[in-house]
């Protein structure tokens, strides 16, 4: 069973592909479509409250014919066209949920989690809130981490869990190129790293690190620093995390090459069910 996950940074930019960056994004989406994964999880769709437009729906159907599309958007009082997640699935789930985690501020309304239930597992995609410039949202982010972990623990009592997404945290120093100069930057604070460690300790496996215990490889490069991608000065902040009971089913993990396109690269997981 093949899974792919990607922070696309605007689904519409990919569908329209009118700018050079939009064209690169569309090319990557087309490569994913050619791979025909069983599931494609997308974060930061930036769709309006109304969801997919007719053109977007038709374009996704052309790329991924027959896939079911599950969409969650940002709704008031959260900002319009913000965050947003989606799962494309070949197989219909037993159930579909847009859970509210009882998290602070507008986080529950920003379109950050989708849960699909299948016979052997729950599948989630998540877009974890960024702590922001000046760590202005760090305290709230900590509450999100605790509530999301509690939600996962509840699901795990019923069946194993597979979740993926932009988790906005580099767990250890090997997960970013320049740990010393980024200590206490958003995504590499002691709090965020500790919270992710607590999640793993509650019965989960970072699938890529499980297969590659000593390898440095990244899934995100800053767009603000034009030399970041060329110099491979990246971070690994995108993850497939699975219940510990599924670790022996992990066959292959990795990142997909996006060429010169900075920002996030898609990640993949292959499992033997």
Automatic annotation (TrEMBL):
The active site is at 127, 166 (proton donor/acceptor), 264 (proton acceptor). Its cofactor is Mg(2+); Mn(2+). The record marks 264 as: Interaction with DNA substrate. GO terms for molecular function: DNA binding; DNA-(apurinic or apyrimidinic site) endonuclease activity; double-stranded DNA 3'-5' DNA exonuclease activity; metal ion binding; phosphoric diester hydrolase activity. Its EC number is 3.1.11.2. One of its GO terms (biological process) is base-excision repair. This is Exodeoxyribonuclease III. It comes from Oenococcus sicerae. The gene is xth.
């Amino acid at each position: 069973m093949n899974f792919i996950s990607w922070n696309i940074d605007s689904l519409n930019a990919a569908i329209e592909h009118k700018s050079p960056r939009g064209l690169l994004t569309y090319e990557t989406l087309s490569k994913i479509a050619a791979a025909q994964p069983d599931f494609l999880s997308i974060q930061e769709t930036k769709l309006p409250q109304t969801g997919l437009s007719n053109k977007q729906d038709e374009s996704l159907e052309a790329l991924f014919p027959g896939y079911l599309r599950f969409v969650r958007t940002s709704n008031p009082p959260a900002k319009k066209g913000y965050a947003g997640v989606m799962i494309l699935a070949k197989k219909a789930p037993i159930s579909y949920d847009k859970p509210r985690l009882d998290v602070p501020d507008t986080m529950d309304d920003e379109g950050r989690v989708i849960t699909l239930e299948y016979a052997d597992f729950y599948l989630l995609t998540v877009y974890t809130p960024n702590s922001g410039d000046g760590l202005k949202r760090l305290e709230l982010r900590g509450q999100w981490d605790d509530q999301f972990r509690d939600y996962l623990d509840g699901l795990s009592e019923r069946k194993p869990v597979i979740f993926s997404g932009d988790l906005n945290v580099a767990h250890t120093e090997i997960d970013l190129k320049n740990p010393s100069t980024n200590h206490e930057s958003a995504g590499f604070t002691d709090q965020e790293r500790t919270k992710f460690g607590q999640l793993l300790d509650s019965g989960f496996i970072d699938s890529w690190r499980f297969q590659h215990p000593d390898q440095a490889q990244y899934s995100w490069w800053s767009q603000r620093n034009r030399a970041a991608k060329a110099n491979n000065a990246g971070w690994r902040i995108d993850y497939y995390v699975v219940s510990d009971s599924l670790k022996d089913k992990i066959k292959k993990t990795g990142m997909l090459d996006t060429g010169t396109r900075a920002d996030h690269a898609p990640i993949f997981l292959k499992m033997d069910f």
